[in-house]
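Readers outside the structure-tokenisation community will struggle with the description of the input data as it stands. For illustration, here is how one protein appears when written out as sequence plus structure tokens:
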Amino acid sequence: MGGIQSCLAPAPYTALCAKNLDDTILSYYMDLASDKFGGSIKSVSDQYFGNADNLIDENDPQEDEEELDKDGDRDGWQSRRHVDEAWAIIKLGCHGRLYGFDINTINFNDAAPLTATVEASPSSQSRGPNKARLRCYGIAVPNWPQNLKKEVNLASAQKGARITRWTDTQNANNPNVLMDHGKTSEDGWETPHSREANRNDYVVIQLASPGTLNSLVISTEHYLGNAPNAISIDGCYSVEEDPAYDYTADWIEIVRHESVEENAINKFNVTNNKKIFSHLRLTVHPGLSISFF
């Protein structure tokens, strides 16, 4: 999981002995530092050979054995050599709780740091040069204004909405579907191709906050020929993260098997707009592709 990791007391940590992030609990959380999520580099001490913006690039670095011992044009952050300490200040895309970090030193051989320190306050700070990526995995925590009068997207990952249950084990636990307006078809949820009849995959979304709903938007942007024929949406109220563990949770039909257009924004008005919901269940018929919800 990258180079040697360290942190300041009183924040104990456990190093994860895994080469693949998907094999760890961190795959359950979002990278709050990602540029796609709104993260940005606010300040950096030195980036002579590699731009610090690479640290928060959502795309993973590509391994290149020919570049291991070369300086410059690195797909990562690299300072001048012989610098005792280099640092970068990263502003997370939103307020949040952090559960783990991935410090990636791919393509840095003799130039990789021996240790790294990650400190958190109103901004995140990482000291130690020459890293390909820094991932800060956690959960967004909404910072609601006291007098909130305008509509907000309660299903936005940047406000704290999360996918808590899914049928598509390959792709559905993907926060992209809770991000507004993906740039390509890769920024959405595409279910596996299957000859199984009536697959009907679904995701259960815990909203950023319980609330009433005025409208629901399903985007199939960038999907031509592989958008679902129809969708259905149900809602419930539960104090549990996953309503499957709440025997009192009562799912209510909000949108009944409505057809959707491909490569389009599909909007549905909610007639029961006085009911408070904490979770939504989005089902695609048959399982195909959604850009965002």
Observations:
- Confidence is low (pLDDT under 50) at residues 1-9, 123-128.
- DSSP finds no helices and 16 strands in the chain.
- The longest strand covers residues 202-212.
- Residues 109 and 197 are 50 Å apart (CA to CA).
